[in-house]
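Saturday, quiet lab. Running sequence design on the structure tokens for the scaffold JK sent over.
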């Protein structure tokens, strides 16, 4: 298939459980909950989106005819912005994905000892790609996941949860929108923009996610929304507060 990509860029993840982690952001064009055009916002299911996902004219964007071509563009973005030539050193890539990526732990399983105390060796930083949009699951398929894995990447997705996910994704973050029905009811992280009149946290609290985050709605009422989200998290400690730190520190 041909993949329509708005942009590919390198930054730090600014939200949720992976906050502060270096990543390539792979933003796909298109969404099923809003056209991305201001004239359609009032009638959209998701009315508060602050992202430009229309077209393929962003940095690194374009039409990619194969999974390998797109995965290679992601790998080049990582390599051009980091110190290492390839994700795991040396000149090759696709030499297998480390155990740390499979376990989503960030640490290996081998240990040295100092006296009788085990000291775990931290492996090289695992390259991470965040597939986002728009709605990335309209386009992501198993061949693309496999091609990214072959280049050593841990593959995360940020989705509204209304589409089925291909096999092999390493990190699934679902961000429910309004009353849009969820197909993905389990994953690593549920990140709910708050408040949403049609999407109260109680509706999602029993779903099978490892982490639950409330993220204050970025609007003219952002300060009030932040206070409300903070108060909710204090009263309901299942939920943690997520702030968009990339906006606070001025990075993409």
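Result came back. Writing it out in full:
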């Amino acid at each position: 298939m041909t993949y329509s990509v708005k942009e590919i860029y390198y930054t730090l993840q600014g939200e949720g459980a992976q906050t502060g982690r270096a990543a390539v952001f792979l933003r796909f064009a298109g969404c099923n909950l809003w056209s991305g055009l201001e004239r359609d916002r009032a009638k959209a299911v998701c009315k508060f989106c602050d992202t430009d996902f229309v077209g393929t004219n962003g940095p690194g964007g374009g039409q990619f005819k194969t999974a390998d071509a797109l995965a290679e563009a992601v790998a080049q973005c990582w390599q051009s912005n980091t110190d290492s030539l390839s994700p795991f050193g040396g000149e090759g890539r696709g030499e297998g994905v480390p155990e740390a990526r499979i376990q989503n732990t960030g640490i290996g399983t081998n240990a040295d000892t100092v006296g009788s105390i085990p000291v775990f060796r931290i492996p090289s930083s695992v390259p991470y790609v965040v597939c986002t949009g728009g709605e990335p699951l309209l386009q992501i398929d198993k061949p693309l996941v496999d091609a990214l894995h072959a280049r050593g990447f841990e593959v995360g997705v940020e989705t509204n949860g209304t589409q089925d996910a291909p096999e092999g994704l390493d990190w699934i973050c679902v961000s429910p929108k309004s009353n849009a029905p969820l197909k993905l009811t389990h994953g690593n992280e549920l990140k709910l923009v708050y408040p949403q009149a049609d999407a109260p946290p109680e509706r999602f609290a029993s779903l099978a996610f490892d982490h639950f985050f409330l993220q204050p709605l970025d609007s003219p009422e952002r300060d009030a929304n932040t206070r409300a989200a903070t108060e909710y998290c204090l009263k309901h400690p299942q939920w943690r507060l997520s702030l968009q730190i990339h906006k606070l520190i001025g990075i993409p």
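Notes for JK: Helices lie at 67-81, 99-103, 142-150, 222-235, 245-249. DSSP finds five helices and eleven strands in the chain. Ask whether to fix the surface positions before the next round.
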